[in-house]
User: Which sequence fits this backbone?
């Protein structure tokens, strides 16, 4: 019991661990992440994966909401161009990604916090590499602290 | 004292257009004045803050507060009116979502003061005077409301019962809202008192929208002769209609100008800017990165366009001043 408490103490003051929200397409990146798991690949545990039927289902609201709820980064994984199960979904994502990236930049959110990757069902290593790379880059940037908590809003007002 | 419902109007960070809407009720304002007792309306009638302070709590039936929250005085007045009112109504875009003054959230206090008191071409300020919350001179102290770093919506400060959208709210919406509130026919708390469908639904050009829209270049109203019948999106104009709540009877479109989004999103969307971004980007035809960028770059100011009336009320609220700088 005592040991457990002791081992817990440093956790609360631990170094910053980025929280990454990942939206993965059901037909490609999600399967690749599954393959990474069954292949026992190791990668950073900072990603919360949300499975969607298509990367085209990623409403830009989801991305902004993730940031507003405390995500430090958002990753979208979709099928390679030409491979979309629904023919056009990933192209819609690509276009939205371009415009949303611009909006985020102008809102002072660093580019490394928002990433789009094309990953097929066979490319488990790409899942691992993309996640590891993104976690490292976001870790270097530090926390975003954008949550709409009253104390954060108050700090923005009186800053 | 009469037994009529008591109504108050107040303004915070706004232009005065919302007050104008009240007057724009035209003849109907006489019915309103007959039906209610106006207990506070500084822009039109001589009441003082101490009159409000003297009122018992919750004694005002409904307060219509327009304008965003930007200064400490506005913060105090909003809190005061909240405690004195049974119903607090965020009236107009600024108190609903932040409005045009909310675009100041792309800057911080320091850069705004610098621009206004030092850099603007018309400023003559050799002594370098900037407003301060407190100033002492010769043993006398004067105080000013403090200019805060961020613009807030009303509901980011106090509890809000209802919202009346629009910049300014169309008189028809105000009339319906007044009837609902004063008639005791109260909708669920938090309701936006306007129709809950997209503007396209009541757009006179609805039938002129082509089956498949695709955009190869976004155009600005001043750079083309706008067809008066054709869907504005089909002409390459950024029309906020698909992401905007109706209720204005498409006033701008009837004036041959695209919707700029003042009524905010419908209840099914939370972030109007994200929704129109999603819609417009998807309409771009190209599949090539460089060409996509070229087309999207024909929208010169996405934030000022998509969040013209709602930056403080959006998911991101304000620019992170210590984050990435826009590359121009």
Assistant:
């Amino acid at each position: 019991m005592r040991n457990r408490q002791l081992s817990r103490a440093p956790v609360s003051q631990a170094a910053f661990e980025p929280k990454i929200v990942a939206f993965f397409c059901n037909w490609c990146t999600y399967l690749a992440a599954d393959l990474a798991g069954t292949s026992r690949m190791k990668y950073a545990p900072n990603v919360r994966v949300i499975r969607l039927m298509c990367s085209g289902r990623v409403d830009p609201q989801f991305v902004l909401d993730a940031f507003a709820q405390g995500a430090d980064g958002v990753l979208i994984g979709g099928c390679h161009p030409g491979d979309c199960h629904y023919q056009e979904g990933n192209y819609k994502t690509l276009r939205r990604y371009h415009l949303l990236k611009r909006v985020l930049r102008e809102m002072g959110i660093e580019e490394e916090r928002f990433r789009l990757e094309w990953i097929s069902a066979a490319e488990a290593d790409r899942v691992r590499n993309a996640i590891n790379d993104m976690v490292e880059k976001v870790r270097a940037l530090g926390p975003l602290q954008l949550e709409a908590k009253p104390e954060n809003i108050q700090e923005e007002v009186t800053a | 004292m009469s037994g009529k419902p008591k109504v108050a109007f107040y303004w915070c960070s706004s232009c005065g257009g919302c007050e104008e809407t009240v007057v724009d009720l035209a003849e109907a304002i006489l019915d309103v004045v007959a039906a209610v007792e106006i207990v506070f309306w500084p822009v039109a009638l001589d009441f003082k803050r101490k009159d409000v302070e003297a009122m018992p709590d919750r004694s005002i039936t409904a307060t219509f507060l327009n304008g965003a929250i930007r200064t400490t005085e506005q913060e105090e007045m909003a809190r005061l009116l909240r405690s004195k009112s049974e119903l607090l109504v965020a009236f107009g875009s600024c108190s609903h979502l932040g409005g045009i003054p909310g675009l100041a959230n792309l800057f911080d206090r320091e850069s705004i003061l610098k621009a206004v008191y030092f850099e603007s071409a018309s400023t003559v300020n050799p002594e370098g005077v900037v407003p301060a919350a407190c100033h002492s001179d010769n043993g006398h102290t004067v105080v000013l409301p403090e200019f805060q770093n961020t613009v807030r919506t009303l509901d980011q400060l106090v509890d809000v019962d209802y919202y009346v959208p629009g910049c300014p709210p169309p008189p028809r919406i105000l009339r319906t809202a007044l009837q609902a509130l004063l008639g005791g026919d109260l909708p669920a708390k938090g309701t936006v008192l306007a129709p809950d469908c997209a503007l396209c639904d009541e757009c006179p050009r609805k039938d002129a929208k082509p089956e498949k829209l695709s955009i190869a270049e976004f155009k600005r109203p001043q750079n083309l002769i706008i067809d008066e019948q054709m869907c504005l999106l089909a002409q390459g104009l950024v029309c906020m209609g698909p992401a905007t709540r109706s209720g204005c009877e498409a006033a701008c479109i009837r004036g041959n100008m695209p919707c700029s989004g003042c009524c905010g999103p419908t209840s099914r969307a939370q972030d109007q800017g994200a929704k129109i971004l999603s819609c417009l980007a998807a309409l771009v035809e190209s599949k090539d990165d460089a060409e996509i960028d070229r087309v999207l770059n024909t929208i010169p100011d996405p934030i000022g366009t998509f969040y013209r009336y709602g930056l403080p009320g959006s998911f991101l609220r304000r620019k992170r001043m210590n984050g990435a700088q826009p590359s121009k």
